Amino acid sequence: MVPLWMYLVVAAGLFCIGMYGVLSRRNAVAILMSIELMLNAVNINLVAFWRYLTPERIGGQVFAAFVFVVAAAETAVGLALILMIYRRRQTVVVEDVDLLKW
Amino acid sequence: MFSFFPVDFLTTLTLLPLVGAVIVFVLPKGQEKTARWLALGISLIVLVLAIGVFYTVQDNPPDTGQWVYEEQAQWFPLLNSTWHLGVDGLSATMILLTGLLMPLAILVSFEIEDRVQAVMALFLFLETGMLGVFVALDMVVFFLFWELGLIPMYFLIFLWGGENRRYAANKFFLYTMAGSLGLLLAIQLVGLTVGSFDIPTAIKDWPGLSNSADELLGVEIGKVKYYALLGFTIAFLIKIPAWPFHTWLPDAHTEAPTGGSMILAGVLLKLGAYGFLRLAIPLFPQEWILKRTLASLEYNLADVLGLLAVLGIVLGALAAWGQNDFKRLVAYSSVNHMGFVVLGLAVAALMYGASWAEQGNNTSLLAGVAGIEYDENTSPSDLSSKVEEMYGPERIEEDRENARIALNGVVLQMFAHGLSSAGMFLLVGALYHKAHTRDLRRFGGLWDIVPVYGALLLFMSMVSLGLPGLIGFVGEFMVISGSFKAYPVYVLLAMVGLLTTGIYILKAIQKVLHGPYNEEWAEYDRTQHRLEITRREVVAIAPLVVLALITGLYPKWILDVINSGVVRWFVGG
Amino acid sequence: MDINWFSADYLPWLILFFPLLSFLMIVLFTARNRIVSQTIALSAISLSWVLSLVEFYRVVWEKDVELGKEVFGSQVDWFEAGTHTFKMGVMVDPLTAYMLLMVPLACLLIFIYSLGYMRGDPHNSRFFAYISLFAGAMLTLVLADNMLMLFIGWEVMGLCSYLLIGFWFHKKSAYQAGVKAFMTTRVGDVLMLVGIGYLFVQAGTLGFREILYNEDMLSKLAGQTGIHSVLLGDALGWSPATLIGILLVIGMIGKSSQFPLHGWLPDAMEGPTPVSAMIHAATMVSAGVYMVVRMFPLLSAGVNFHNGDYSAAMWIMGSVGSVTALGAAILAVGQNDIKRILAYSTISQLGFMVAALGIGAWVAAAFHLINHAFFKALLFMASGSVIHSMEHGEHHAHEHGQHEEPHDEPDGLVMDYVAPPNDITRMGGLIHRIPVTAITMLIGSLSLAGLPFITAGFWSKDEIIADAYHGAASDPFPLFVLLALVIAAFLTAFYSMRMWCMTFLGQPRTPAAEYAGIGTGRNRWVKWWNGTRWGKQDPREVEETDRVSRLSAFQMELPLVILAFLAIFAGFIGLPEAFFGANPLHDFLAPTLLEEPEVFDFNFMPMLISMLIALGGLGVGWWLYGREPLAIGESDPSERALGPGIWKTLQNRFYIDYAYRKYIIQPAEWFAVNIVIQAIDKETIDGVLETIAELFTTLGETFKRFNRVVIDGVGDGIPEAIFGFARWFRQVQSGRIQQYLLIVTLALLAIGTLFILQLR
User: Fold this and answer.
1) How big is the CA angle at B83 (ends B78 and B89), to the nearest 5 degrees?
2) Is C673 an interface residue toward B (CB < 8 Å)?
């Protein structure tokens, strides 16, 4: 059987890709997608730990399902915000949206 | 003993004007008339009480060590200071003077239209301050009232004065305040060393302290005494004002409103002289007569005081002569007249010291007073036999008798100057109020326009001049008589001042009244403002005129009281 | 206490009380009513006169005691000082009684005269108030039983003198003269005051009885060593009596107008003429002499002047009196103002009295004092009548169109200016206009000159000269006095004659003199005069006179006649013993003082001298002025004889007054203004104070700056720095979400790394 650490490596890689996306993309939509990647990396971890450590309970699966739902909602809200920003300022580049500056 | 009044009679007398001041002050706007008459009424009540004090002292002159209406209450136990009040012949005279002049000043101040309640309240407030000084028998109480008198006078000058009032008020305040600082310090030195601020106690204990036995904060007591004396003396000299501390006076007088000038000249100047009598001389018998040397010139402090007196008499008179401002002229005349007071005080200080030295058998001090030469090689027995021979008890008693005469003259002169200067300032103010100028060069030839004013001016000038038969003469005569043996040179020099007194008085009369009929002022009199003295002013000056004449012709009524005070003063109160 | 006010002991109070009361009443109540004021004043002085006669009668004749052995009087306590009780009181001794004969009478006559003279003056009431006060003060002085009460009268008289000299206060010269009189006498007065003060403390009393009638007291005062002063050393080591004597004599010099304090009296003539007659001839100026006579035992205490041993005070009096008598007589010759001649004459005659006191002849001095009062009051009032007439003549001449160009009156006192009506060179022939005045004035002038045997002036002057003559035999000092007085007496006779002749004889020299006296009621006598031997030669027309002018003429002429009578007969009470065996005045006055005056053997020499000089002076005067009276335009014979330089010097009074003004008064005023006020008070005292104030202000400024830089710098700097740092640091808040995340990530990495390292 595939050992646990392999799943974890995959998940970590996925997380790093997502993180890189969040920190370096300029497009707000791309950032949102990168966040999805990171969430998926978390999901992989959740499922992998459930299968290997406590297979007799269903907590891991439930958490993963929960994350999906939250991620969907988050994306919906995020996209709506981005749309609103775009309408106001004609841009989706995060660097231009520094309204919370000092 | 004095059961006619309740025991705390003096407190009532002193604080009554203060209570009145508060009532007058809070009267609403539009009640100016009430304020005036109420203030006058209160001051008249005080006058009645003051007359009561005077006659009580006359009927029962207090024995040595006793005071009329004496009262003593816990007041400031932390400092050992008590609320100790009492009067003797000296203070009774001054209380009478205060009580007398205040209603007149208030009556004259009816002419003030601006902030009437405040001005009336300040006058009453001032009265409390002055009466308080005269009744105080505790140094802290004395100082409290001393300072209390300063404030209302400052405001009277500052708020109701003439054109240059800010300068004058500040000069007055700073000058006297500077003196007060020294006074406060001196009072503390005495009070801390003796352990009590009670004046009779201090007079008993403080002069006897000696270098070998006592010290204050590690400083030997001789030095402490010397500086305490300086503190007292300078404060009192400023108030009197003696030369050369007099320059605040012409400015303050010139700018003060008429009523303020009357009180300032009439009573406030007397506080200084009274301070000498009550504190500065009795506390320091030795210091006044201790022989000191300055560049081989031997002197004692009483000599210095006498010298200042003579300078005040002569230079004050000369300065008055040179003035063209009527009010300044009268102001300088105060320096001249108070010089006689200081001269008498110098003699009193000398003989008080000699009496003290005689009591304590201090032969070297007595030798100094008598001008007997001695040095370290003179044996004490030689010295004492020499003193016994040249300045025995008989000679001392003779000189002391002269000093008593001089001191009687001092107090009477204080009273006389109170009357004459108040009267003169009233007259100057009466003319200034109507003519709006005090420049003597612009007057002249007014006698036909203002006959009554002219007659009053003539009379008051003669009081001020010291015409025999009027009050001014008696005091001057007694001071001159009593001082001549102690300070013949000073007295002869003072005669130059007395001569000049005549010149400036006649100058004032001449510049105002004499000369060809003055068309310019006659026109002014017809068209703008009557120049003749008003009935209210005549009422205000009438008591001064009557008293000046009666006392001049029959001074016994007041000298009995003064003399009772003087005699007990010389044996230490 | 039951007081009988009419007993001899208390009556003196009433004598001095009434004039003072009348002063008060006029001032307080009746100042607006001329008639009532005059009535009050006149009745008061009449009452005083009557009462003083009653008093005189009581003390001299009524009692069975002898005046002089006993003194009448009463006292009240005046004040107590120390253990002294000072008493005020009145007393009557022979000297006072003698003065009481003169003073109220002279005052009364002058009051009557003033009714006429001051008619029409707007300040009539005021005038009568002043002279009432004056009379009261003079009586106070005479009746006083102590030095202080005497001094009160003395100074109040000085005040009245000032007020009355400056009575016409619209005129600058008048009020200046008043001030001059007051101040000059005050020089003496203040020193006299010191003398009185010294006497008081030394003797313990000022009562005449206690001091002057008490041998022990006098020898004590003369014997003690004086005061020791630290500054003077023993320079004042004279005996108290000596020093007091000198100071009192200085007071007398001021009051009696002696050299060098004589300058005020001639200027005092600016006052109304009754004032000159009363104050500056009869009473006040002689008060100085009276005081010295009164105090003579003290002044001569400790010396025996009969043996040529004179005290310092006597030396001063002898020299000052002689110099004054002579100098003033010389000046009187050179004056053209009729009143000024009389003023110098008064100074000179007072000099006689003072010189007499200097050689111890106090009875003679008192005698001359009374006689002089009568004839000099007469002369002054007559001169007033002359001036009054001249003023009316001027007025009348003006109506006739014969008016001269008016001079401009000078502004203020000018030494050699003579007001036109007073100028004797502008008179002449007045005897035909105002004969009563002329005759009475002649009597007065002869009495002043000392016409032998029939005039009062002769007897008293003779007695002074006789006393000096007796002393002169043994001592040079009386010889000096004698010489000076003899020359002065000669000049006196000469200028009296000059004055009278120039005024009354010859032709009128101006229109004013031509019409003199018209309208004054005085020419009602012209009719009578035209009928006499002298009037026939030059008869004048007589005018109608109205009732009012006749009344005022009567009021002015009655006193003249009475005084003319006295100017002759007052002298007979003091005839030398040689004539009728007794000298009544001498015997009367002698017990006044302790020391019995010496009675000399009668010697004809001094009387011969007196006769010769009086007749000589009168003769020379007559020869120059009377034989051939001065014609119009002719210059004065004396001026021709002396030359214009000396004449001008005389008219300018030896320039003494100029010198006083220039070297004393002006420098003193300069000193007062420039040194005392400016240099001392303003610059030095206020300068020091202002420097101190300046110093404190500067110090305050410095503190203020220090506050701003250092204290405020620190206080403000800390928040400033925090603020600046925050300003810089807030840039962290870029608003870029990725930056934040990056930082969070890095921080987490760092923390994680540390954590891991920690776990190791």
Assistant:
1) 145
2) yes
C745·A94 Cβ contact <8 A: no
* Residue C530: Cβ within 10 Å count: 18
For residue range C661-678, list pLDDT tens digits in order: 888 888 888 888 888 888
Q: State whether C737 and A19 contact (CB < 8 Å).
A: no
B319 with C84: Cβ contact below 8 A: no
Is residue C373 within 8 A of residue C286, CB to CB? The reply is yes
CA–CA gap between residue C399 and residue B84 (Å, rounded): 85
List of chain B residues whose C-beta atoms are within 8 Å of the C-beta of residue C80 = 556, 559-560, 563
H helix count then E strand count, chain A: 3, 0
8 Å CB contact between B331 and B422: no
CB atoms within 10 A of CB C420: 16
Name the residue in chain B with its Cα closest to that of C666.
B322
CB contact under 8 A, A98 and C738: no
Single-letter amino acid, residue C186: R
Chains B and A touch (3+ CB pairs under 8 A): no
Rounded Cα distance between B20 and B45, Å, is 11
Q: Extract the tokens encoding B365.
A: 């001090």
Asked if C183 lies within 8 A of B499 by C-beta distance, the reply is yes
The string of pLDDT tens digits covering residues B209-262 is 876 666 666 677 888 888 899 999 999 999 988 888 888 888 898 899 999 999
* Alpha-carbon span B546 to C108, nearest angstrom: 30
Tokens of B66: 């006793």
Nearest-by-Cβ selection for B563 from C80, C677, C689: C80
Cα-only R_g, chain A: 17
C67 DSSP β-pair partners = C70
CA atoms within 13 A on the CB side of C502: 26
Residues across chain C:
760
Angle between helix C362-399 and helix C338-358 axes, rounded to 10 deg:
180
Cα gap B203→B199, rounded to integer Å: 6
Counting every residue written for chain A, the total comes to 102
C232, B487 Cβ separation under 8 angstroms: no
**Reduced to 3 states, what is the DSSP secondary structure of residue B240?**
coil
**What distance in Å separates the CA atoms of residue C187 and residue A8, rounded to the nearest whole number?**
132
Q: How many whole angstroms separate alpha carbon B286 and alpha carbon C529? A: 86
Is ipTM over 0.95?
no
Average pLDDT estimate for B293-305: 84
pLDDT digits (tens, 9 = 90+) for A52-95: 888 888 888 899 999 999 999 999 999 999 999 889 888 888 87
Distance CA B450, CA B461 (A): 16
The token pair at C304 is: 């025996």
Closest alpha carbon to C379 in C137, C175, C191, C564: C564
Whole-number Å distance between alpha carbons of C454 and C570: 10
- Residue of A23, A24, A101 with shortest CB distance to C735: A101
Best of C729, C732, C733, C738 to mutate (most A CBs within 10 Å, chain A): C738
Q: Which of B193, B92, B76, B91 is nearest to B138 (CA)?
A: B76
How many whole angstroms separate alpha carbon B410 and alpha carbon B399? 16
CB distance A95–C730 less than 8 Å?
no
Instruction: Please give the Cα distance from B557 to C750 (Å, whole number).
Output: 108
Residue-wise pLDDT for C471-498, tens only, equals 877 788 888 888 899 999 999 999 999 9
User: Alpha-carbon distance B415 to B327, whole Å?
Assistant: 21
Q: pLDDT digit string (tens) for B510-553?
A: 989 988 888 888 888 888 888 888 899 999 999 999 999 999 99
A98: which chain C residues are within 8 Å (Cβ-Cβ)?
734-736
Task: Give Cα B150 distance to the centre of its chain.
Answer: 15
CB B216 within 8 A of CB B224: yes
What distance separates the 2 farthest-apart alpha carbons in chain A?
A: 54
